[in-house]
Amino acid sequence: MEKEKVVDRLTLIGKEVLKYVQNQEFPIIKLPLRSVTNVIYDNKQKIVKLGDKFVIRKSSNVRQAKIFSQLLWIAYFAKENLLLKDRSCSLRDLYYNSFNDIKIKFEEQDESDKLVVELETILGCPRENFNIIPEEKSSIFGDLTVEYMSPPTHRGQRVKLTTDPDGKNIGLSLATVKFVECNAKIVIAIEKGAIFRRFVEEQVYKKLNAILIDTGGQAPRFTRMLIKRLNKELGLPVYVLTDADPWGMHIARVIISGSAIAAHIPELATPEAKWLGIYATDIKKYNLPSIPLNELDLHRLETMKRDPRYEDRFWSSQIEFFEKYKQKAELEAFSKYGLTAIIDRYLIKKIKESQ
Amino acid sequence: MEKEKVVDRLTLIGKEVLKYVQNQEFPIIKLPLRSVTNVIYDNKQKIVKLGDKFVIRKSSNVRQAKIFSQLLWIAYFAKENLLLKDRSCSLRDLYYNSFNDIKIKFEEQDESDKLVVELETILGCPRENFNIIPEEKSSIFGDLTVEYMSPPTHRGQRVKLTTDPDGKNIGLSLATVKFVECNAKIVIAIEKGAIFRRFVEEQVYKKLNAILIDTGGQAPRFTRMLIKRLNKELGLPVYVLTDADPWGMHIARVIISGSAIAAHIPELATPEAKWLGIYATDIKKYNLPSIPLNELDLHRLETMKRDPRYEDRFWSSQIEFFEKYKQKAELEAFSKYGLTAIIDRYLIKKIKESQ
User: At what angle do helices A246-257 and A295-305 cross, to 10 degrees?
Assistant: First the structure.
């Protein structure tokens, strides 16, 4: 969500509250219910989101009065001290800032964290959009020229995402750039840095006209925001490359459908993204060095079988194959055939098949 | 260590072995002993390093013959497939590559990992210098223009380290750049990304003419390599800013003196670097929100008291204060006084005091 829109929505929260007060009524705030009973999987849109149930925060309720004010303080802080001043802070920082700014202190960081999620739910956008940012490490490389919007020192500056062979950090500034010129045709999101580096060294970005993204494991939210933008704004197909194990499958699935924990901000999902593998069936097909699934892996597969995101025929068949073979394999396993085998023998073929 | 020198040393290993063979003798390789009995703290140099004890790997010994060949294979792979081809790989990758290239397989990755450390010891340089690289996430920002040496696609390209407000990734390429022009006067290494981001947003790099580094917790080896280079090649004073807890102290100490586990590559240490705090004594001085030390913290302090790196009067007194107060505090705790307090009230003053 664009900064102006977030500022508008934050202002609106205050205006609504003010209206109640002016009418001499206790203000209330209505927001979607964030409980498992209200998390649904939209099979058509292929995303996880919240249902129709709502909850109402009442300032008239003695037990809710404190968190009502705390919520308003966070909204105020996000607007005045962060967005309008072009500053950012972490969840931890926000907690410590409360020591100075309000009489009603948070006892534990846990309390302020929860209210940040509540604010996300009210606004319908991730906290990254109101500059409360996590420490995330993921990178991007490709033929895309961008223009920074933040911080003010860098606003208007342009940079091409091929200048940095170690990959450009995907932080607040990069996730909120304006796209200026893109000569890439596809996006490849990769689970790990070692393979990302290989792809940069072997010029996969040129060979396949691809923007490369290192998700650093489970893709952080800035990364998912950026992947979504590349797909939506530039119309680029997105491919996700992971290890052949339940965790790798889930990394791909979360990029495609979102996560249950972030069901209140479905805009992070990219339903058009495709999982390239490594599939369970590829382990035998390519005769890859493999490792037995451990108990944790098997338990994870059990959970996935009950998850509506995996009901799709292809995905559920891969879960079955994992359970049958009881083996997993990593992306690096292709190095059995030499350092570039993962590109020459696998990646290029898979992308062709997926198109 | 420069690439040419590493290639020379790798070649030398082969030549030495060849000499033995030509003389119809079983080859041997002599290397410093990497056991605790041979790890010493050089009080004058302020670094952890290996002592005078040596160990000899004999190809004539039946139990050693296999690892002798494996060690040679790794040296061969590092020279021919990595350095000379301008490629890099991870430890995991190296292990999988062995499946293809040699008859004598490693049973577990653990075995190849150990021999990589052995090769580091023989060469006297970190594996990063022979392109076996870890996944590390740390960043840099400042008025320094650099020229890339690797990969070949980027050789000769120049970039200023202020172009990227999210901080530039410190990977193989950035750690091995040539320094072209530096207008910064100091280096500030920071334990966490949230504060690094704050410093970029508040233009600390201008206010204090500083190169900023986010170590992302314990500084990864590429980061320590780069810090050392900034200090040695450019003569920049280095300051380390951490949380006020035993772990923060140790982050600073490892940058200054190196780690026991890397005693065989003392060139990563920067003895001239200074710890800026937050000191145990600052918690009360600045009336910072603090958290009780837990059992793990207290146990860590006990270990540090037996560590020669902490014998120095100031450092040992800080350990005593921690034990007395039984409290710790984070860098974000300064946000109690507002988002920029850590800069205005602490950083600027501390650097002046340290100069």
Answer: 40
Q: What ipTM did this prediction achieve?
A: 0.87
Alpha-helical regions (H) of A88-133: 91-101, 109-123
* Domain final residue pick, A107, A130, A153: A130
Rg of chain B over CA atoms, in angstroms? 22
- Domain holding A219, by residue range, is 139-354
Successive 10-residue mean pLDDT values, chain A, 355 residues: 92 96 95 89 89 93 91 95 92 88 80 94 92 88 96 95 95 94 98 92 95 95 95 98 96 93 89 96 95 94 93 95 96 90 94 88
Question: Out of B100, B150, B157, whose CB is closest to A337?
Answer: B100
Contacts of B147 (CB under 8 A, 6+ apart): B156, B157, B158, B177, B178, B180
- List the CATH number of the domain containing B311: 3.40.1360.10
Verify that A122 and A265 share a domain, yes or no. no
Chain B, window 215-254: residues with a beta carbon less than 8 angstroms from a chain A beta carbon:
216
**B88 and B153 belong to one structural domain:** no
Using CA atoms, how far residue A179 sits from A138, A169, A182, A234, B167, in Å, is 19, 16, 7, 8, 19
pLDDT, residue A258, reads: 92
Asked whether residue B177 falls in the same domain as residue B302, the answer is yes
For residues B155 and B291, state if they share a domain.
yes
- In this complex, is the C-beta atom of B14 within 8 Å of any C-beta atom belonging to chain A? no
Q: What is the pLDDT of residues B218-260, one digit of tens each?
A: 999 999 999 999 999 999 999 999 999 999 999 999 999 998 8
A24 lies within 8 A of chain B by CB: no
Q: Is A56 exposed, middle or buried (0-12, 13-18, 19+ CB in 10 A)?
A: exposed
> Are B164 and B256 in a shared domain?
yes
Report how many domains make up chain B.
2
Distance CA B155, CA A165 (A): 10
Mutate to test the interface with B, among A169, A330, A340 (most CBs of B within 10 A): A169
> What is the CATH classification number for the domain harbouring A65?
1.10.10.10
Contact B347, B307 (CB under 8 A): no
Last residue of a domain, one of A94, A112, A130: A130
DSSP string, B337-355: G-TTHIIIIIIHHHHHHH-
Burial class (CB in 10 A: 0-12, 13-18, 19+), B302: exposed
pLDDT tens, B288-300? 999 999 999 999 9
A172 interfacial to chain B (CB closer than 8 Å):
yes
| Residue pLDDT, tens place only, B173-197 | 999 999 999 999 999 999 999 899 9
**Residue B166 and residue B222 in one domain:** yes
List active site positions of A: 96
Residue A105 with chain B: CB contacts under 8 Å? none
Whether A110 and A209 map to the same domain: the answer is no
Neighbours of B306 (CB within 10 A): 8
Q: Full-prediction pTM beyond 0.80?
A: yes
- CB < 8 Å to A154, chain B: 165
What is d(CA B188, CA B168) in angstroms, rounded to the nearest whole number?
Answer: 15
**Residues B70, B160: one domain?**
no
**Can you tell me the distance from the alpha carbon of B201 to that of B339, in angstroms, rounded to the nearest whole number?**
11
Chain A residue with minimum CA distance to B136: A193
Sign of the CA dihedral A124, A126, A131, A132? Answer: positive
